[in-house]
Design goal:
Length: 91
Amino acid sequence: MSEAVILQHAGEANTDFLMYTGNFCGYCSAAKRLFTAKNLTFKEINFDQHDGLRQAVVTATGHRTVPVIFDLRNGNVTFIGGFDETSAYLR
């Protein structure tokens, strides 16, 4: 079920990236700025607005902090990680 939720969100996103965030997250804000600077589109889903979603994503990815970012380009759903991993990935 956990992976199915991510795949559903990815299928509905119609963007370059899917990003799960949390309130008051500096790294989430930095990721948004990074995507904007590189002219990449993203869909943001805030864990604080969806009960139980954080645990489902943690179960699927093992990634416990926010943001949790997926590359949706080229028809794939590729888990990248958080801001640091995404920053390195996009160099």
